[in-house]
Amino acid sequence: MWFKGTVRVVLALALSAAVGCTSSDSDDDSARTSPPSTTRAADPTPSSSPSPVEPVSLPALIQREYTGSDLKLGTVVDRNDAYTSYEVTYESNGLTISGLMNIPEGEGPFPALVLAHGYIDPEVYTTGRGFAREQDRLARNGYVVLHTDYRNHAGSDKDPDDNGNLRLGYTEDVIGAAKALKASGRPEIDADRIGLMGRSLGGGVVYNVLAVAPGLFDAAVAFAPVSPRPDENFDQFRLPGQESAGAEVEAEHGTPEENPEFWNGLSPLTYVDRVTEPLLIHHGTEDETCPISWTRNAVDAFEKAGKDVELRTYRGEGHTFYGQWPRSMETTMDFFEENLR
């Protein structure tokens, strides 16, 4: 039997793929940094008549043209001495996407960050849920922070095809968020300084965006990302006793062994040569949800491609950072300071 609820979780995590850099387990908060690329690619221009591609794939997203506009501030959720938090909406490829935006007090323009949250059941998700600590910390340090809800979440438009499209629409929503920030004309936002940060499933979205839309963001951070290989995510997030979850996808497209072209087309590692942005990854050594080995393996591909990537590991931390979270955020802010200021 096909368990839809389970498969929604499996597919949401399975199609958020990763890219990273590795370091030794012997040092807590250790880092290895690969040299930055010497060239930065321009935004790719689709050919006038692109070759047909599998519609559920990263090549399909690469060929697509994207729009993002009409950023609107709504209800004030919070106002304090450091920033004001607003419910917002923006247009992304014909859909209205909701979110939460923190705007710092003081004289702008400020660099902006798009935040891509991890998996939360859309049935219980509320606007801006996820990254609560990070939204506050980043805004207090002078960043406009746009936390996107994704389609089918909170006040966003519904996309009935998104599950069938393996939730690649989340990648579109993040691309649309950046374009909406750039097109907003708001004096608080510096359209030339925009970064990206994602966690878990959102970390996978980060990697997709870097491969699909190089040059759109100026820098990116991923916390505890999912695997860059969809088959690994299928295996990890399939619940005990529900081994048949994913059977519908495999029936249509074949297993990774039967149809490697389809599965490779879902992995950003296949398109790592397209990435141009510096990338910082945080991962705990005791993460049982998204094993650190996934990131280590992904990093090999990034480094072999000569990309600018750094991994920080945190001994003893699991999937959700606790004791070492402040240090991870100091590193994150140093990284964005270097690349966005």
Task: Give an overview of the whole structure.
The protein is an alpha/beta fold and 341 residues long. The protein has a single domain (4-34, 48-340), classed as Alpha/Beta hydrolase fold, catalytic domain (Rossmann fold, 3-Layer(aba) Sandwich), CATH 3.40.50.1820. Helix content is 30%, strand content 22%. β2 (68-79) and β3 form a beta hairpin. The protein is globular.
Radius of gyration: 19 Å
Counted beta strands:
10
Q: Mean pLDDT, rounded to whole units?
A: 85
Please name the fourth-level CATH homologous superfamily: Alpha/Beta hydrolase fold, catalytic domain
**CATH fold call:** Rossmann fold
How many structural domains? Answer: 1
CATH class division: Alpha Beta
Sheet-strand content, in percent, reads 15-25%
Largest sheet: 10 strands, mixed
Structural class: alpha/beta
Strand order of the largest sheet: 1-10-9-8-7-5-6-4-3-2
H-E order: HEHEEEEHEHEHEHHHEHEH
Q: Looking at the structure, what is the overall shape?
A: globular
Could you say what the CATH architecture is?
3-Layer(aba) Sandwich
Distance between the termini: 52 Å
Proportion of residues in helical segments: 25-40%
- Sequence stretches where pLDDT stays below 50 over 5 or more residues: 1-27, 37-47
Number of helices, where a helix is a run of at least 4 consecutive DSSP H or I residues: 10
